[in-house]
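Sequence and fold:
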Amino acid sequence: MVAQMELVDRQLLNIIQSSFPLVSKPFKAIGSQLDVPEEEVIRRVAALKKKNVVRQISAIFDTRRLGYKTCLVAARFPHGSLTRAAHHINEHPGVSHNYARNGYFNLWFTIAVPPGEVLEETVDRLAKETHAEAVRIMPTIRFFKIGVNFDMVEEQGAAHEYYSPDGYKDGQANWNKVEPVTDFEVQVIRELQEDIALTPRPFEGMAKRLGISEEELFSYGKAFQERGIMRRFSAVLHHRRAGFRANGMAVWKVQPERSEEVGRIMAANPAVTHCYERPTFPDWQYTHFSMIHATSKEGCEEIAREISQQTGIADYQVLYSYREYKKTRVRYFV
């Protein structure tokens, strides 16, 4: 599928996954960049969605800024009950990613719970309901990078520009700060988080339901970005369908005194889409996590070796997902 993809489709994917324009006629604006008609842009996006290369186009909000508690969870299940357990966990609306991976912990998922709920209690309940053999809650200690972006033309990771709420790029350590939102702003968030309609004016219906103009809606979007509530409005791709078939979670054993230094080096690599420091346990001594996407497993291994050479960290593993049970965006205030 990827080999047959036209250049204009690759260029289109580069645009919409980076920043989908918050304007009245966004497909026309994208068409002007590609020198193709508006209706052709809509047709191409529809075709890419039908092929599941594009999952959805919507806002990406900052979970913590909205007061939600979130973490990565590692769990172990007997092979025979893994899929059944994964599907049960997927029913929780705060579970956005859920993968089977190689290694002792064979299921890894991210979960977010709204204000007022206790994250640990929710995870403990899911563990009991699914009869997990072991569960480890791995919250973020340091947050170095989120920057999922693929260069579809060059077929390589392109996470050059990235969001670092810990301030490792701009010197502001404020990633745990909750930004209060009004009742009406909650309504706006509910609209912007939904997949847009593939029509010339996809925001028109949102604005009408809110009882405001499109320009007012875009003003809210801009203000959300300025306040750190919304990271961007963009497409999320199915990375395997887009040609990035290998998804490696590299885990590293880093000395405490080198934590920030090593995290910065990892985050600077354009093939690394996520980079965090997390707690250790008696049965888990890896501190740093860096997500690597490449067109092949060999590509992931090569990138991991490069990072190992750059950092001098030789104690690491690359855990590969062999089944994706869920990948979506968290839906807030539902």
Observations:
- Confidence is low (pLDDT under 50) at residues 154-172.
- The domain at 65-165+240-327 is CATH 3.30.70.3460 (Alpha-Beta Plaits).
- The radius of gyration is 20 Å.
